[in-house]
Each structure stands twice: as C-alpha cells, then as structure tokens.
Amino acid sequence: xxxxxxxxxxxxxxxxxxxxxxxxxxxxxxxxxxxxxxxxxxxxxxxxxxxxxxxxxxxxxxxxxxxxxxxxxxxxxxxxxxxxxxxxxxx
Length: 91
Description:
4 strands, two-stranded antiparallel ribbon
C-alpha cells in the first residue's frame, strides 16, 4: 500500500511556487496566459497538505505545448500524460 505524507502547512510552499512559476515562464515565454498555484499547498487555512506544489498553466494554444518538452526536461520535469491527450501533466 502506498503511504501519503501529510505535513503542517508552511510559507515555504508559496516560495517554492514562486520559483517554479518563474522557471515555467522562462520555458513557455509568450505562450503563457497565466500560471496558478492550486491544490492544498495553496490554501494556508487547510493547515496540512501533501508536500507537492500543484501548478496549473494556461497557454494560448494547447497544441503547441509539446514543442516545449525538451526545455521542460532541461529544467528537470518529466512528462506524465493522463487520460486526455490535450492535457499535459509534468512532475
């Protein structure tokens, strides 16, 4: 059975999000419409969360996102596709 780690909420998660947001803006440049910090680490009032920074990137043309795969890998991300090929999940 896989164990889920839950930690007390910390301000560090906002800092980690800000760093990743900057990196993602460097990768996607003008393709980015907006970037959002989502999930439990974005809500201090919850008090606890899995220590994973969930980020949603809104882009102009989803069909162009695959053109950035090499840059994503250079920045340490790995591709993880889900059920919908129009959605890209990276880690």
